[in-house]
Every structure is written in C-alpha cells, then in structure tokens.
Amino acid sequence: MNSDYLLQIDKLRVSFWTEKGRLTAVEDASFYIKQGETLGVVGESGCGKSVTAESILKLHDDQLTDYEGTISYHNQNLLTESEKSLRKIRGNEISMIFQDPMSSLNPVYTIGDQIVESLRLHKKMSKKDAYQKAIEVLRLTGIPSPEQRVHDYPHQLSGGMRQRVMIALAICCEPTLLIADEPTTALDVTIQAQILDVMKDLQKKTSMGIMMITHDLAVVAETCDRVVVMYLGQVIEETDVKDLFNQPLHPYTIGLLKSMPNMDSDRTKELHEINGSVPSLHQVPQGCRFAGRCEFATEKCRNEAPILEEVTDSHKVRCWHYQEISLKRGASNGDS
Fold this sequence. Notes:
Helix content: 25-40%
Oligomer: single chain
Largest sheet: 8 strands, mixed
CATH superfamily: P-loop containing nucleotide triphosphate hydrolases
Number of strands: 12
Distance between the termini: 46 Å
Number of domains: 1
Shape: globular
C-alpha cells in the first residue's frame, strides 16, 4: 500500500450467490483515497457504487458473498480481517452515511441513545460524557436545540434533520474515513447545500477522507477533489474533478455530463439522454460493457474487453477509442 493513501482498493471483485447462480456485481475495481481529500464515485443505479462502498466494511452476508482482491487500510487487508477486528473499525475509524436514514436509524430508540451507544462501545465513555458528546455533535451538524432533540425519536424529525443525525452518528467517533452513500438524496437544494457544508467543515477540522457516492454531478463539482466513474461494476474512468468536467475521455462520462442541465442550456430543447439502460448482471456484455449504448462502438468494442489504461499520471480510462473520441470532440468544439 502506498503510504500516502488512507485507503487503497486493488482489483476488487464482489460476487453474490443467488437462485440464478453466481453474479459478479463489482469486477476489477481499483482506486485510492488520500487523507483529507474527497473522492467522488459516480454512475447510474446498478453500476456497483454502493456494493463497492459496503464491501469496504464487509457489510454483505458472508454466506452469500465472495470477495477477491485487496482493500488496504493502515496496512490491513480489510477483506481478510476477522469480524471481531472489523467491529472495532466500523463506526469508529471508518463510518458510513446510508441513503435512507429512516431505515438506518432504530425507530424505538431516541437519537441520543443511538449516538451514546456508539460512543460507549468505541470510546469507552461514561454515559454522562457520551450524552454531552452526543449534544456536541448534533450541534456541530446544525441541529437546533440539540439539548432537546437528543431525546427525540427518528419519526419526530424531518428528512433533513434525520440526515443530519446520520452524519452526527457517523462522525461522533471522529473517523479517519467517511463513506457517504447519496447523503443528500430526496432533500431539497437548500438542505442539501447545508449538509454538504457540514461535511466540508468537518473535513477541514479533522482531515478525514470522504468517499462521496452520488449520481449528482453538481454535488461532485461542488465537493470532490477526484472522481471515479463506474459502469456495470467496473471503474471506467478516474481523474481529478477539473479534468472530469473539462476533458472527459470515456463516452459514458461524456454522456453523463451532456445530460446535466445548466444555466446556459436552450430550454426549448430536450436534455441529452444516454440510449438504453444499464444491462442486468445476468447479461454482462462480452467486450466493453458500455458498447451496447455507445455511439462510437465497433466490433472490437463488442468482442474485446478494454483495460483501465493510464493516460496521464492523474487520468485513467477504460475505452478502446478514447483518443479518436477526444480528437472528434475537440474538432467539434472548435467548429461550434
């Protein structure tokens, strides 16, 4: 493992045993996160983002899941650690904010009790000190009157408040890595901006790394340093956030960016859409996984799987024709 990396994933493969046999949800995924940086992981639903994130903490059923490759954290391969060892890391050194706070928070315990339980388990605090810390972290996430809210149950809070509680629960033990799985889904833009600001402020204070899983490229532009683009279980592009928006190389990434509305868009025209949908894991294409939806696809694309190629020190892409596509886009932009 590179000593500069907080977390390094190398050739990760995650397969599930189902009634229809073994399905591989993530294949040959490799990337890293540095301390104090935010890595965005983007792609449509079904691209393997959440499966990858949950695999870091081995949250899948061990009886039905096979892992291959390595997930290195402080010179430990998390995939080979015992359950006892992982329990010390989960919620303590590596925390996760899940998509749906209502299904992640226990409805029969107050939000204070849930934060206190985590603090007492990992930090061995007294109950009194843990309650004071719970109030502190709730205040830190912008929850008003935390002294009263600490006694509330999840159903008594709005969606935005519950999401703030999830953040408080995730950061109460001061983790070195925060995994945020669609942390602002279904929230209005004002609350979304506030929650992202809370996470950025916490990062400045603690230098924690953040893995931001999202389908929202506006969130990526606002919060991330580098970006990994996933498609059907594979990393298909990796670069810094500036190059992602200025010089995307993979046709899928280009399609995602063209689908974004912006202030200068012609409102009389329909937004760009990528034809088709992500294939089922039962029907993974033989060659490039995006070939069936790609306007640039050739026979080679349909029959031979490309590797993740290092274009520059900071840019990788999995595409047979990225150079030609880049030249065509450059010429097109020059004509316009």
